[in-house]
Design a protein that fits this description.
This protein is α+β, with helices and mostly antiparallel strands. 57% of the residues lie in helices and 12% in strands. The protein has helices at 39-43, 74-94, 96-101, 103-130, 141-155, 177-204, 208-228, 236-243, 245-262; strands at 2-3, 10-11, 15-16, 23-24, 51-56, 59-64, 134-139, 167-172. It has a two-stranded antiparallel sheet. The chain has a two-stranded antiparallel sheet with strand order 3-4. It has a two-stranded antiparallel sheet with strand order 5-6. Helix 4 (103-130) packs parallel to helix 7 and helix 6 (177-204) packs antiparallel against helix 7 (208-228). It starts with a strand and ends with a helix.
Length: 263
């Protein structure tokens, strides 16, 4: 186990800060929560300052709100491109022979996988930026490993859903539980919206091949939403549950029905 560089608590799964390179527990993983002295402290933008305060869990805090319009940094665009490439190449290596026979089918399926991941992360990013928070996507070595392993286990039916998470949106700034919940629900919500769209297309289009692709899109997106709605740890569900249990229950019910009964 590794000790948190802020509070000294030992943790099995420490978080490494992308800016200062130190390791922290879940509570202090964000740059704002461990007074990061790395690149984040020097580069974070402050256009408007207003005092906000909130409390939750085992700590209280008050800080300045950072206001920014929607934007992407060069590093973020690079990480998004690499993450998308991993999602495209990992299954392609597994089904390369089938790709040679049905290139259109495989290509559309890979695009469905990539959109499920990209739109999920962008939903978190834009929701956070709407509240004036700093938010950027970052690759994760652990996430890349989980993505590759989960795909292999899913193909052998040892895992019911794929874990598509080569990285995540890092958010910094002070927020209350309502804002945290709304930012967290944005990701699963966009996946459920995609699942509904694919389901509608599958009901309208009679072609069997297209129907199979659309139902695969329902399974991928509802499965990703359901996985992220797990109500503990670093998952979206933990923050949604603390914010509004009704929203969490409804979201889990919709995702569960679409994944287990429709797809």
């Amino acid at each position: 186990m590794v000790k948190c560089d802020t509070c000294g608590v030992e943790t099995i799964m420490p978080f490494k800060c992308n800016y200062c390179g130190k390791y922290f527990c879940e509570q202090h993983r964000l740059p704002e929560f461990h007074s990061c002295t790395g690149a984040y402290a020097a580069a974070k933008p402050v256009i408007y300052q207003g005092t906000y305060s909130s409390s939750g869990g085992s700590y209280n805090y008050a800080s300045n709100r950072v206001i920014r319009s929607y934007w992407f940094s060069k590093r973020e665009l690079r990480d998004l491109a690499i993450g998308s490439g991993i999602i495209l190449l990992t299954p392609l290596l597994r089904v390369w022979s089938f790709f040679l026979q049905e290139p259109a089918f495989v290509s559309v399926y890979l695009v469905i996988l990539m959109l499920a991941f990209i739109l999920h992360e962008l939903a978190h990013k834009f929701a956070a930026q709407r509240f004036g928070l700093w938010a950027e996507f970052r690759l994760s070595a652990t996430g890349i490993l989980f993505t590759i392993m989960s795909f292999l286990l899913f193909q052998t039916r040892l895992l019911p859903i794929m874990v598509i998470a080569p990285g995540a949106v890092m958010i910094a700034g002070m927020m209350n539980w309502k804002e945290s919940g709304e930012i967290s629900i944005a990701g699963p919500a966009i996946n459920l919206a995609q699942a509904f769209l694919y389901l509608a297309i599958s009901l309208i289009v009679p072609d069997a091949l297209i129907k199979a692709l659309m139902l695969a899109g329902v399974a991928v997106n509802s499965g990703l939403a359901l996985f992220n709605l797990i109500p503990f740890g670093v998952f979206d569900g933990e923050k949604i549950f603390k914010w509004d249990r009704r929203v969490w229950v409804i979201s889990v019910a919709i995702a569960g029905i679409m994944f287990f009964f429709i797809s």
